Amino acid sequence: MSDELLIAAGPGEWRAALLEDGVPVELYVERGDRSEVGSIHLGRVRRLLPALNALLVDIGGDRPAFLPAGDVLPRGRRLDEGERVIVQIRRESQGGKAARLTTGVVLRGQRVELRLGRPGIRGGETLSPAEQARLLTAVAGFDRAPQPDPLPACGEREGPAKREGEGPSGLRLLEPALVESLIAEATDLSRRWRNILERAARLSPPSRLDPPLSFATALGGALPAAPSRILVDEPAIIPQLRAVFLGTIIQHKPEAEWPVELDAVFDRALAGAVALAGGGAVHIEATRAAVLIDVDSGSPQTGAPESTGLAVNLAAVDVIAGQIRLRNLGGGIVIDFVGFEDRRLRERVREALAEALAPDPARPQILGWTRLGHLELVRPRRGRPLAEALLEPRSGGPLIKTAVTVAHEALRALRHEARLQPGPRWRLTVHPDVAAALAGGAAAALRALEQRFGRAVAIEADPRLDRVRFQIAPV
Questions:
Q1: How do beta strands 106-108 and 112-116 pair?
Q2: Residue-averaged pLDDT of the chain
Q3: Is the predicted pLDDT of residue 248 greater than 90, yes or no?
Q4: CA-CA-CA-CA torsion sign (158, 159, 160, 163)
Q5: 331-336 vs 291-296, strand pairing mode
Q6: pLDDT of residue 124
Q7: From CA 77, how far away is CA 58, in angstroms rounded?
Q8: Would you say residue 37 has pLDDT above 60?
């Protein structure tokens, strides 16, 4: 299977699509405005929640993150309010829910995974006891670093210095390799952990520790694995990508020469319904409780009800599996297929869905049919869903693109026009909400584009425009 990543690097926003055998399977939006899964932070315990057996930890941002007591390692370790703690994000904040944390930091290499607070080796069955001992020796002693002892702020407490990074390190082997290469990679990961500890000793919470904040690192953390090739429409970002995607072929190619039209792919992934090739449609709606998917057979003119329903359901299976991954839907998912009573036909649909979901690296699990005839499955939540990054609800209607989303789309379109017609000044006419975003959340992106042009962009608000529409004209 061939895979490649397409990156459209607009001012203040990157949009990317992961393709497998030429088909888009995952979409990403990076604006530098989030703490992604896998990022490591120095936080402070703000509140103990005994009723939930958890803690709230301040890692920066609008709200504290959620740390279950079961994710505090090693087992039995106790954290107090006001204490410093190094944590890693296991699940991003989404759907009004706080980010979920763990103190069991994991640093992943190509062949080895360093696991803090979990001693021993997993996946080392092919190694001899002597080789396993050599591996563990390579990471021993790296899990301690000098810790600060500053005066606490009012109402806060600096915990005992030994607690940051507390606990022995273990390893998980990701693929077979010579023990010397495993030792070299484990040593590199251990040094990286030591550097994280030393950085934590110099900083005050909340602080981001690893990796350094950039669009490339956020994108690298979101991908299931490094792609074989990356195509970018902006050559200036190639050095940043090469620092993150070691060994990946990275090339500049204009977006017009890409195998897919990125904007069209994003628009389809944000639509509320997806048409089926033989008629009918799949409707997708995310709620706070679950994702609801409805299969509509349309109005077929011929065929027996059960055979027609089966054909529609089997056609919907591949669309549903693809859209779940493309939109990064997670949590509980309930599918209302075209109904029939025959259990054998239901089983065929379930088996077809299981096969279609198999390539998904998130490994969704089918739970089974409910009494109401719905098929339930669960997919782990990690990054935020695509719609949550780009859309917002509006009163009495479907989801609509946020003003910031439209602002970035307008700036990207303006950059494209400026490439075709270099030289003139430009006027961008937008809805007042978008004009406010260009003066607020997207102001830095506008300034970056103006610096690139060497001249200011005239922003004009027109309440007659629909929010998602904008006009670009030379001045």
A1: antiparallel
A2: 89
A3: yes
A4: negative
A5: parallel
A6: 83
A7: 19
A8: yes
> Model confidence over 312-368: pLDDT tens digits?
999 999 999 999 999 999 999 999 999 887 889 999 999 999 999 999 999 999 999
pLDDT interval class at 145 (50, 70, 90): low
Q: Which amino acid does the sequence have at 238?
A: I
For residue 129 the two structure tokens come to 């006891």
Q: What is the mean pLDDT of residues 257-277?
A: 94
Query: Are 265 and 23 in contact, with CB atoms under 8 Å apart?
Result: no
CA distance 319 to 313: 10
The answer to whether residues 116 and 104 touch, using CB atoms and an 8 Å cutoff, is yes
pLDDT tier for residue 36 given thresholds of 50, 70 and 90: confident
The HSE-up count of residue 163 (CA atoms within 13 Å, CB side) is: 21
Question: Under a CB-based contact definition with an 8 Å cutoff, are residues 270 and 386 in contact?
Answer: yes
3-state SS of 43-88? EEEEEEEHHHCEEEEECCCCCCEEEEHHHCCCCCCCCCCCCEEEEE
Note the pTM of the prediction, 2 decimals: 0.82
